[in-house]
Amino acid sequence: MVDETGEEKLSQAEGGAAAIEDKGRASDSTHSAAKVTSAEKLNMLQSIEVQLSVEVGRAKMTIKDLLLLNEGSVIELDRMAGDPLEIIVNGASIAKGEIVMVGDKFGIRFVDISEPEKIAQSI
Q1: Residue 100: CB partners within 8 Å, gap ≥ 6?
Q2: φ and ψ at 3, to 5 degrees?
Q3: pLDDT for 115
Q4: Is 120 helix (H, G, I), strand (E, B) or coil?
Q5: pLDDT at 54 over 50
Q6: What is the dihedral of CA 44, 49, 54, 58, to 10 degrees?
């Protein structure tokens, strides 16, 4: 389209289409630069720290009973001796295990790892 000064102007429809094309080209170059391979994603995830804990068992009690505890007190837990322990990562149970001795320290041996789908649902 040409205006009264003789300069060519784009109609709104043509200008809008041109702007969309330019925007598309910009996002394509940004998008291709942002593409990350699976291996790179895995490498990035490997450096994330998580909190791993092992739960021996649980017990419910009143505050009154809690205040009566002193040295030598014994609390009965909800698990039997020899039952597998819960291995928990960031609050989600991922496996069961058993306590082992590693030198003079405790360790945990994984005996049953949860399915990845179940782990993903619990996170």
Answers
A1: 106, 107, 108, 109
A2: -90, -175
A3: 85
A4: helix
A5: yes
A6: -110
